[in-house]
Amino acid sequence: MMGSSVTLACWLLVVASLGQKHLVTGGCSGKCCRGRDLSCSTIDWRMNRVYGTCYCDEGCIKTKDCCFDYFTECPAQDCAVSSWSFWSGCTKPCEPSVRVRFRQIEQQPSHSGEPCPSLKESAGCREYRDHQGSLCGRNSGTALISSLEFGKGRPKHDSYGNPLDPGFCIEFKLESRTPYCTVENRPHTLWMRYISEGFKVCVACEPPALRNNSGSCQGDGQESDKEAVLHWQAVGNPRCSGTWKKVQKTQQCTCPPQHSFVFI
After folding, report:
1. Higher model confidence: residue 81 or residue 5?
2. Could you give the 3-state DSSP secondary structure of residue 237?
3. CA 68 – CA 31 distance, rounded (Å)
4. Pairing of strands 80-81, 230-234
5. Number of H helices, E strands in the chain
6. Angle of CA points 64, 68, 71, to nearest 5°
7. Can you tell me whether residue 261 is helix, strand or coil?
8. DSSP single-letter state for residue 33
């Protein structure tokens, strides 16, 4: 009888020690892994309350075989990015092109955290000086237009602090436009979807598009009568273009923001 009691006690100690080993070495403590890693495993309770092999890698969420403490031991970390850099200059001087800005990844996402957003943005633009600093030649050809947002960053004073000419606004009635204005879906071309035939649009003529020596912007149609069909092109999407007729010249634009643009 005494021998049986000793044997039972020994077995209880073995079971107890095995249980302690599970408590100490089980779970995801110190075992968080990226991607799908079959070696990143242990023996413990799964989140579905089944005891056995469980995993501590990022792929266990999809395969539903994570250890019970995966989310507490391996918390998700979202991607973190820096602020946007300053806008670059236009890629080509004296003609419609694009400018870009960038931001950097400061923290990579982990454990199914939110992925990183776009690290690059582009916007249509045009510069009026070449690489040597000389003014570009302009004529009264096709009007080049951009989003009203583009004009908000323009200077209001010259390098000496003197206020620049505030410019004026031209109201047009849209006669036609190409279908590419609505099918483009890049962030810097979304404003073009508001260019619709038959609508009245307002286009601001302001520095630096405003030519101080003539008081006009390229393609503004000031010298044309109201029946003249004029041409315009959206900067940032060369396939978005069309025609319009001048309605009137005003000091301030009165169109809603989505139908207001700027000459460039």
Report:
1. 81
2. coil
3. 13
4. unpaired
5. 5, 12
6. 85
7. strand
8. B
Our measurement of the distance from residue 80's CA atom to the centroid of its chain's CA atoms, rounded to an integer in Å, reads 14
> In sequence order, what are the residues at sequence separation of 6 or more whose Cβ sits closer than 8 angstroms to the Cβ of residue 160?
none
Which segment of 128-137, 160-169, 180-189, 215-224 scores lowest on mean pLDDT? 128-137
Burial degree of 149 (CB within 10 A; 0-12, 13-18, 19+): middle
Would you give the DSSP letter of residue 40? S
**225: number of Cβ within 10 Å:** 8
Report in angstroms the alpha-carbon separations of 62 from 1, 65, 135: 54, 8, 59
Q: Over 50: is that where the pLDDT of 8 sits?
A: no
CB 85 within 8 A of CB 103: yes
Contact 165, 207 (CB under 8 A): yes
Residue positions counted in the chain: 264
66, 73 Cβ separation under 8 angstroms: no
Residue reference for tokens 């301030």:
252
Q: Amino acid identity of 70?
A: Y
Beta bridge partners of 146: 262
CA dihedral of 202, 203, 204, 210, whole degrees rounded to 10: -150
Is the dihedral angle over the CA atoms 23, 24, 30, 34 positive or is it negative? negative
Question: Tell me, what's the pLDDT at 246?
Answer: 93
Amino acid residing at 210? L
Give the contacts of 127 (CB within 8 A, at least 6 positions apart).
89, 90, 93, 94, 136
